[in-house]
Amino acid sequence: MLEYLPRSKQHAELHTTQFGIEECIPGHFFGPAVRSHYLLHYVLSGQGVFEVEGKRYYLKKGQGFLIFPEIITYYQADTSDPWTYCWVGFNGTSAELLLKQAGLTKASPIIHYDRDDMIYQYLQLMNESRVFHKARETRLTGLLYLLLSQLVEYGPVASPEVKETRAEIYVEQVKDFIEMNYPQSITVEDIAQYIGLNRSYLCSLFKERMSVSIQNYLIHYRINKACEMMGNAELSIADISRSVGYNDPLLFSKMFKKLKGSSPKNYRTEIQAQIQDDTQESMIQIEEEHLFYSYMPSSN
Asked: Largest Cα–Cα distance of the chain, in whole Å?
């Protein structure tokens, strides 16, 4: 069973390019050759050999190998006990990072997963996705994420480099969550639950990299958003307060003055005066340019 899929325009971060299952004949081989995408093979039974960059790996059931794009590889089924394997090809901007989280790199391309048959089940579900029409591409992407999540969860302990990468991802997730939900009554605990980390650990990690606590980052973000709204004369101070997640206008005024050095009312007066001055200055400049061009002699 083999199926090739068209290039995905909807899921640029991760998408399936092909998948299949093959019961190889004795000695069946492929390569040496290169691929234009990632190609993950998982051995269901039998055994064989995988060669890449001068290294040879003898593999059996519960193991597999990952082919990286543009890397020459060769693999061959055993002559007496040929392997049956399933595979999935994929690509996308998130692919390399997910594979690193699973401990799969060019220097370490071998998969060890013998706890259950989930990888095979996900391949089977990919095959069954043919019955979907409008949502098939999304379903395939979801199944690919699930498959890779198994390798990440039960893969080797992450290297320091990968741990650093994960920390950066968690920080970005905090910032993204705040950006999308700051108008709501969110707490640091809500953020930690969303990301799936212990609150204390997440706070420590965030402060280490951002030099500010999550709580203070949230407060600064809300107040800065409030400042952006101050120029809108149709919004009252109470409207702005509610729009940035403060249902209590007094608390909003207190936090605003603490960060900006003046009350929301005074800050707004200064902003509106500045807007008025800028408008008048622009009008004067336009009038002066008009007079200048009016007095310029015409050329024949």
From this structure: 98
Alpha-carbon distances, residue 207 vs 169, 217, 255 (angstroms): 14, 10, 20
* Nearest CA-CA partner of 38 in 63, 11, 69, 15: 69
Share of the chain above pLDDT 70, in %: 85
> Has residue 2 got a pLDDT over 50?
no
For residues 179 and 221, the answer to whether their CB atoms sit within 8 Å is yes
Entry pTM: 0.56
CATH class name, domain 2-157: mainly beta
At the top level of CATH, which class does the domain 221-283 belong to? mainly alpha
Secondary-structure percent of the chain, ordered helix, strand, coil, rounded to 5: 50, 20, 30
Give yes or no for a contact between 75 and 96, defined as CB atoms under 8 angstroms apart.
Answer: no
Quote the CA–CA distance of 151 and 101 in Å, as a whole number.
Answer: 9
Beta-strand runs (E) in the chain? 2-4, 15-23, 29-33, 38-45, 47-52, 55-60, 63-67, 73-77, 84-91, 110-112
Tell me how far apart the alpha carbons of residues 132 and 111 are, in angstroms, rounded to a whole number: 30
* Encoded amino acid at 251, one letter: L
User: How confident is the model over 232-274, as pLDDT tens digits?
Assistant: 888 899 999 999 999 999 999 999 999 999 999 999 888 877 7
Closest CA relative to residue 62, chosen from 100, 111, 95, 5: 111
Residues 37/69, Cβ–Cβ less than 8 Å = yes
> Which pLDDT band holds residue 291 (cuts at 50, 70, 90)?
low
pLDDT at 44: 95
Strands 73-77 and 2-4: unpaired
